[in-house]
Structures are given as structure tokens and as C-alpha cells.
Amino acid sequence: MKKITVIFMLAMLMSACTSESVEKNDTDGYMEVTISAQLSDNETKTIRETDKSVSWLPNEKINIICGNDKAMFTSNNTERASVATFSGQLLISTVIGATEGNENNAFIWGLYPYDANVESDGTYVTTTLPNVQTGVSGTFADELFLTLARSQSFNLGFYSVCSGFKFSLTNSNITSISFSGNNNENLAGKARLTFVDGVPSANILEGQKTITLTPENGTFETGVDYYFVFFPTVFENGFTVTFTTNNHKSGSFIYENNVAFSRNTFVNKSNVDDNVLFLGSTEPIVFADENAKSVCVSVWDTNNDGEISFREAEAVTSIPNTLFRNDYGYNCPMVFFNELQYFTGITSIPSRCFQNCSSLREITLPANITSIGESAFIGCQLKTIIMPEGVRSVGKKAYYNCWYATSLIIPASIISIGDSAFDGCSGLQSIICKPVNPPTCYSTAFDNTNNCPIYVPQASVDEYKAAGGWWVYSNRISSI
Fold first, then answer.
1. Considering its fold, how many domains does the chain have in total?
2. Which of 9, 112, 217, 369 is the 20 to 30 A CA-CA neighbour of 456?
3. Residue 285: inside a domain, yes or no?
4. Is the dihedral of CA 351, 354, 357, 358 positive or negative?
């Protein structure tokens, strides 16, 4: 069929402030905007200006629907504009029907943002509001905040469909935030939109009960506003905002009173994460080695679900020194145990803890460890020996005969190294010792370590070479 290009004059009519509303202007079919806005110029979306007006950006895309005719229209403005012209193609019959007075009372519908899967029977428009959203500093994400227009002419006024929650944060390590009603209310998903009493109304057909917000760049910023966008909702028992951090902790802000989130309104809560208690996440840890997981589950699976959650790991304060070690023919066949790092309540590795775990090649110690006991890793196949900053003492023969290790890093916090602590680590290519002051050290600590270089802080080279226990390795000591 032949099509014809037409031009629309469109006014953007939205509101999304904590205590600000919008009113319809009955004389011209437009709505006045009372919404604060801030977005970058190069994004293609409707933006919120700092003077609480709303503008179209260049190249905005919308749906225009009339009867069975549906088309994408694109804005013609070259800069921000409160009223913009949009151009696109419609069937000649649609254009004639509209320009001759729309005798059949057919409505012309407009929808922002453009939806290639939009549906309509002339009395409603069906579209989808996503429940997985991107957190953008100072605004909602591109092509997220739904607006709807309906007219019997080509003069369309767009009205806000959604509501939402506006908030700021105090913690800088939050990587994900979710919002849900305490009575399992539907918040997003596929919905049928129409006008009731002159304003949009949404009937959710396929609902989503949780909105998840993730930031553009890894973690959310502090002290700036972010937004959840959802359909207008009355939360009879309040709502919950749950935060997840980059160290696998989570916490929730819970509001338990009845509250209505009306169309055109963002309810505001500054510093919403302030005073929230963050605990290890209830999500299960994904173990790289099933043998390591099996041992941990046998002792620390407090809810008997066959998993170890970050919260269960965080609650552990000590490791039984017989749990992993090879005694009387038993050998835990685990190869990897980097998940030990999530057991942040542990402050020491007990004596003989991993003794003769001859398959163990990789392990990551918790950040709060302060001591490593005698013979803790004797006979393991560790590829590298790395201790967290904060460890103060390494016991006798702690890493004895770990001959597969090629590098050893001694943190700056170490003050004591036991007899033969690293004796027999014959595969070492280098030892980096970070303490400025030479730790107390036995003269056998680094025996049989491949005569590899020992690197120490430049200002401390002479002191190391003269220190007790260290002087026997003086010909190996040089600056980092």
C-alpha cells in the first residue's frame, strides 16, 4: 500500500517529583511539566531539565498508532525542546480519516518509548515495562519512563504512566539494588494502557513483583539520586529495598506502613541505606572444587540445604584443625579452595590445618587472618604463597615442602617468621618481603628455597642483611 509522510506537533507531558503533580491544560490539550531533570546531551531519550521542565532530545522515537496502522516516528528537533515535531509514515487512509475530522471517532495513540512489539485494538495500548533496569545518576534510564498520548487529531499530549522511588546512597560498594512490595504487588511487566478520566491507567497482564537496579559502572555513586520506575501501586504493607555489595553482603531497608505511589510521583528517600545492617548474602557460594564444598557443607551448612551461603560462611569463626588435613591415610582430594576468602569470621589458620593436602594447588585466605599456625600447609602443592595484609605471624614449618610454589609474597604486616617456615619450597623463583622493619626470623626460615632472590624495601636492605636470622641470606637480599 502507498504511504504518506506526515508531521506531528507533540508536547511532552510528564511529572515525577516527590510532592509535585501535573495538571492538564484543557484549552490546548497539553499538560504542563513539573518534573526535575538532568541527563547528558548525547543520550536519546526524554530528559528532565534542572528547571523542572521536560524536553525532547534529538532523535527521540515513539509509536504512533491509529486503527491497524502502527509506525515509528522520530523527532526532528536538533536541540532540546519542550514541543517537538516528529515525522514518520502512515497509510493514506489513516491520514485522510484523521484530517477529515475522524468521523469514526478513531483515536490516534502515541507511546514513548518506542516498542516494536506494541499492541492495540484502538481502545488500549499494550507494552512492557522491564523489571531489570539500569541505575543512571540523576535520572531514570534511557527509554524507560512510559508516557502515553491519545487524541482524535494530530495534536498529541503525552501523559506520564508510571510512578517510582527516588533515593540516594551512603555506601560506595553497592552493586545491585532490588525493590519489592511486602504484599507481593505487581510492579512491572506487560500491561494494557488506556485513559481513565483523562489520564493513563495501567492494567498489568503479566506482572513482575521485583524491580532490580544495577549501575552503569560497577557500583552506585553516593550522594546522587537514582530511580526505580514502576506502575502506580498501593503498597498495603509497605515495601522493601534490598542492597547487595561487591563483597557479597546484603542488607534491607524495610518500610512497613501503607503507602501509595501515584502516577506522576516519585516517593523520595535520601540515604536509604543509612543504618542498614549488611550481612553475608544468603546466595550460595559457587565452589570451583566439589571436594572443598563437600567438606564445608558437612560442617557449616546450618540450614541443611546442601549449600554454603555467604552468610553461613561469614558466621564461621574457626576451622577444626582435623577437618582437611591428611591423617591416617585420609586425604581431602580438593585442588582449589579460593572460596575460603568468604569465611571472613576466621582470624587464624590453626596448626596442621591443611597438612599434607597434597592435591591442594590454590587457596585464598580470608582478609582478617592474623596468624598462620605451625605446619598449616606442610606438603601442599600450592603454586603461589600469598598471605593477606594483616597477617602478623607465620608458624614453624607453616609452608614446609611446598615445592611447587614459584613465588612467595610476605605482607608488610608480618612481624614474626617461624623456624623452617618456608624450608623446602624448592621451586621458588623469588621472595618479596614487604615489611620495612625485618621481622623476627629463624635462620632456617628460607632454607632449600632454590637460592632465589629475596627482595626487601630499598631503604631496609642493609638492615635486613644485618638482622638476626636474615644475615645468613644476605647474599640473596636486594631492593624491591
1. 2
2. 369
3. no
4. negative
Instruction: Confirm if 411 and 389 have CB atoms less than 8 A apart.
Output: yes
Strands 147-151 and 188-196: unpaired
- Helical ranges in 215-330 per DSSP H: 290-300, 310-315
Q: Residue 190 is placed in which grid cell?
A: 506487560
d(CA 15, CA 26): 17
Burial of 444 (0-12, 13-18, 19+ CB in 10 A): middle
**Structure confidence at residue 36 (pLDDT):** 22
User: Is the peptide bond between 232 and the residue preceding it cis, with omega within 30 degrees of 0?
Assistant: no
CB 75 within 8 A of CB 86: yes
Is 441 part of a structural domain of the chain?
A: yes
In angstroms, the Cα distances linking 391 to 25, 275, 394 are 69, 30, 8
- Decide: 415 and 435 in contact? Cβ < 8 Å: yes
- Residue 235 is predicted with a pLDDT of 97
For residue 164, give the nearest of 183, 144, 148, 149 by alpha carbon. Answer: 144
Within 10 angstroms of residue 216's Cβ, the number of other Cβ atoms is 11
Contact 455, 432 (CB under 8 A): yes
Q: Please identify every stretch of the chain with a pLDDT value under 50, giving residue numbers as ranges.
A: 1-53, 102-104, 329
The answer to whether residue 141 sits within a structural domain is yes
128, three cell numbers: 512492557
Q: pTM of the prediction?
A: 0.73
**Boundary residue ending a domain (240, 260, 279):** 279
DSSP at 136: B
Sheet holding 266-269, edge to edge: 226-230, 163-167, 266-269
Domain hosting 149: range is 3-279
